[in-house]
Each structure stands twice: as structure tokens, then as C-alpha cells.
Amino acid sequence: MTRAELEAIREDVVVCRRCPRLVAWRERVAKERTARFAGETYWGRPVPGFGDPNARVLVLGLAPAAHGGNRTGRIFTGDRSGDFLFASMHRTGFANRSSSTSVDDGLELRGAYVAAVNRCAPPGNRPTPQERDRCLPFLEGELRALAALHVIVPLGSFAWDGAIRALVGLGLASPRPKPRFGHGAEATCGPYRLVGSFHPSQQNTFTGKLTPDMLDEVFTRARALVR
User: Fold this and answer.
1) Which of 170, 121, 118 minimizes the C-alpha distance to 147?
2) What digits encode the pLDDT tens for the residues 72-89?
3) What is the pTM of this model?
4) Strand ranges (E), 98-226
5) Which residues of 192-212 are buried (b: 16+ CB within 10 A; e: fewer)?
6) How many other CB atoms sit within 10 Å of the CB of residue 119?
7) Could you give the 3-state DSSP secondary structure of residue 119?
8) Cα-flanking dihedrals φ and ψ of residue 175, to 5°?
9) Domains of the chain: which residue ranges?
10) 153 to each of 64, 193, 213, how far by Cα in Å?
11) For residue 133, which of 162, 155, 156, 164 has the smallest C-alpha distance?
């Protein structure tokens, strides 16, 4: 039933219009585009999660990029953050290729599922708390459907907090004291283990705050935890 459950969540995600500000922004970006993608047709809708229905590791981002997932229709596909992420997932055995440019490029995830706390591209990459909370039921549904899931890798503090909120939404007790986010930080919530990583944003990767080796170490740790 996992595959059918994930497909049902996908169908709900792509038609969602719960957040007027995000709807207006994602559709504006899709209409106006940016110069380097001027000839492309943008997805311009909420972006569902994707990956292996039998995933034991969930990689959780903040939201789709305006000219990445909002353009291609797949989270972390078609932007530099995704290039950095999928290169690491390929090196550590979670992906069959090291980059992703479109939904039909042949990328397959192995033992992993990728999603985001918010499914629409937000202005300035900053969803409001209300927009986060309206979107969390989609993540909660994916957590229920991914029956083999054991490890969550939140990319950044927003995803770390969102993951804990979604797990509490499933009825699990919130960890006490509340675990602080950090690169390599770990926490347990019910049957799930969280392993934090800095987000692979250009701000982090260009400055060296997050290096390929650092992200590889997180995914290597995640793999060790599910063996």
C-alpha cells in the first residue's frame, strides 16, 4: 500500500492552494521566469516528495527553489543545491546518478526519499509559521506511508524543526530537552533518528560552511544507522 499511499499524497499536494501568498508567488515566478530559463515552461505548483517507497532514510529540505523545483516539478532538481545534494547521495549509494536536471533524467533513489517541509517556493526562501503548519500534514502523511523509514536527515534548522513538529503531529512525544540543530547533530523521536546537516545552499557551499566531505559523512552515518 505504500506506493498507493504516496501517490495519493502526491495528488493532494499538487493541487493545494491553502496559502494565498505562496500561490501568488509560485505562479508569478512561473509566468515571469528568469532570463536563463525564459524558454521553459515552469511547473508553478506545489512540489511533491519522491523516491524509494521502501526508503529507510528521508532527506528533508526547506522548500522548492523558485527556479529549481518550482520550474522542474521535482524537489532539488535543476538547481545548484540539488547538484550538491545528489552528488553526495550518489557517492554514498543513495542515488544512481550525481545530478538531476529534469523529472525524466533517469534519477532513481535507492533506500531514500526526498521531500520538503513546505511544498511551494516561498518569497525569500522564508515560509511563515502559518504556511509551515498548513503544509505539515503532507509530511505527516509521508511519514505514515514510508513504513520502513528509520532515519530523517533534515537539511538546515527549518527542516530540523519541521521534522520534529511533524513527528509530534503523529502522536510521538517531543524529545526533552528540545534537541538543538547543528551539522551532525542527532536526536531520537519515537522510532526515528534525526541526523542534521547544514543545507546545501550556495551560501553554505560557496563559503565552505558545508563541504562535500561533511555531507558525505552525514549520509554515511545515516546508512550506518539503518543497517
Assistant:
1) 170
2) 999 999 999 999 999 999
3) 0.96
4) 112-116, 151-154, 186-189, 192-195
5) bbbbbbbbbbeebbeeeebee
6) 29
7) coil
8) -60, 140
9) 2-226
10) 17, 9, 16
11) 162
- Domain 2-226, CATH number (from 3.30.565.10, 3.30.450.20, 3.30.750.24, 3.40.470.10): 3.40.470.10
Question: Tens of pLDDT along 87-129?
Answer: 999 999 999 999 999 999 999 999 999 999 999 999 999 999 9
Residue type, 159: A
β-pairing, 151-154 vs 57-61, is: parallel
Residue 132 parent element (H or E): helix 129-145
Give the torsion sign (CA, 139, 141, 144, 146). Answer: negative
Q: Which residue is it, cell 523516491?
A: 51
Q: Which residues contact 67 (CB under 8 A, 6 or more apart)?
A: 29, 33, 34, 37, 78, 79
